[in-house]
Amino acid sequence: MSHDQKKEEDPRKVNNQYPLDSNCYKILDEIGKGVSAIVYKAICLPIDSSVVAIKAIDLEKLKEDFDNVRREAKTMTLLSHPNILPAHCSFTVNTRLWVVMPFMSGGSLQSIISSSYPDGLSEYCIATVLKETLSALSYLHGQGHLHRDIKAGNILIDSNGSVKLADFGVSASIYESNLPYGSSSSSFSSSMMLTDVAGTPYWMAPEVIHSHTGYSLKADIWSFGITALELAHGRPPLSHLPPSKSLIMKITKRFRFSDYEKTKDTKNKKFSKSFKDMVGLCLDQDPSKRPSAEKLLKHSFFKNSKGPDFLVKTLLQGLPTVEKRFKEMKTQMPLSLNKTEEEDDDESVSENPKQRRISGWNFNEEGFKLDPVFPSDHKQVTFGGETIIKDKGKESDGSSNSSSPEQVLPETDQISVQESGSDSQGSNAGGGHYETDQISVQESRSENQGGNASGGQSVISGGSGAGAGAGGVVWKDNEMVLKTLKFLKDSVDDQRHLVSHMINLVRVEDTANLSREEQLMKEIDNLKVELENEKKKNSELQLELEILKLQLSDE
Ligand SMILES: Nc1ncnc2c1ncn2[C@@H]1O[C@H](COP(=O)(O)OP(=O)(O)OP(=O)(O)O)[C@@H](O)[C@H]1O
């Protein structure tokens, strides 16, 4: 039956255009759930019962983001590129905005990974899907649009292996920014800056988080780099941490990929030099140094790209349907799928085994190593004598000496650290204790006792518990000591993150009665103070590290 014949039969079908009436669609199944939307598989009855995906966005949940949603629908209908998912139409149904779009039977790369590739994809797959994504991004940037939410969850794949970039919920046009758009899309210009915070925290570029400095097209390139890591490892770096803005602010500060090519991956997965180089270019802290999408397309890594048939034969082979995957995920992760925004900040969510596959990323070694840290290696963290994160391997009694050698991070497998922190004189309460028989480090801090520039003393001894007393320094292996100091510093950072997280939780209660604007102002003030403290502490630690390095070189 031709479309024209059908048109006569069904008055709702106009020129093969998708009708703006919910009665014309029959919902078949739920296939996805985002922060404020549910995605359904449906058929459009008047158009030959063609299969579509409907993203039903809850406008009540959004409220202040309504402009973004309208922008998504508008952007999707205006853009035309083989790697960009178009929208057939959009209309409101009660309190929801329905965006009707083509059904991509493979679903998102995120759903594929979490269902079938928990440890990540092969580099050939990554090169293939990312090259297509980059083509979409290059087109988008050429049109003066930022996507602002590049991640595996927004890269969809069809049964024929075609790859499409979707979800323009937070996309923005640089034509729409307050400032004039003055130069070509591939060059970074201060006249193209946007200033509002948008996107998904773990993928956000540092300049988006520190949005007062403005950001532009290169923010998408950062997210693209994070997406590459997400595809390679199964989840984005540091995604076990709560996505609070203040936390992410610190997290992104810890990314130093400029020397990424120096990385020597020795465990779990090996990556090619060209992959590391490509990721390293994207994750440059300085946006102006990141390549444009157009330039990145010419990177040697994308020569590994294989085309859609390859994806059909590898990635999609034997994959459960998108609806089945969603059902499975729902039964496995009821918490995360039903959680509210507040619960998002709750670390207990990451208790879910799927979400905890990698509990973090270890950058300790040489400062640039990107090794996933697995949950079983999760160390116990104590603060002020109280156990904040329990050792996964054993029940902790909260005492400072309750940790086992297994708690030592695997990447620094010959190093152990014993920390004890105290603000009051003489007391030695709190602190984690990680030790092996190779080396142990004990750090004691007492604000009222004086000591070195940062008010602390470090004791490093060869052999567990043996060797130097307070104030003495016995160095056995310079490299090991440096690694240990780095680990110590990271451990302090971790504790600070946790404290910030707790402070944030308390603040949520505190500010519950304030207006949204007042809350944001308050949060900004708090963040400023927090940032200043952080800077101060970091420079103190830096100084301490430098002093210890000097002592080391004297030895
Ligand atoms: N057009 C589509 N065809 C097939 N599956 C889709 C389509 N759009 C979305 N999905 C599925 O629904 C899931 C949720 O999509 P959605 O865009 O709502 O959420 P998200 O991008 O993962 O999260 P959010 O945008 O809220 O951060 C996707 O991961 C994907 O598997």
TrEMBL record:
Residues 413-427, 437-451 have a biased composition (Polar residues). Belongs to the protein kinase superfamily. STE Ser/Thr protein kinase family. STE20 subfamily. This is Serine/threonine-protein kinase BLUS1. The lineage of its organism: Eukaryota, Viridiplantae, Streptophyta, Embryophyta, Tracheophyta. Residues 514-551 form a coiled coil. It comes from the Eukaryota. It comes from Abeliophyllum distichum. ATP binds at residue 55. Pfam families: Pkinase. Keywords: ATP-binding, Coiled coil, Kinase, Nucleotide-binding, Transferase. GO terms for molecular function: ATP binding; kinase activity.
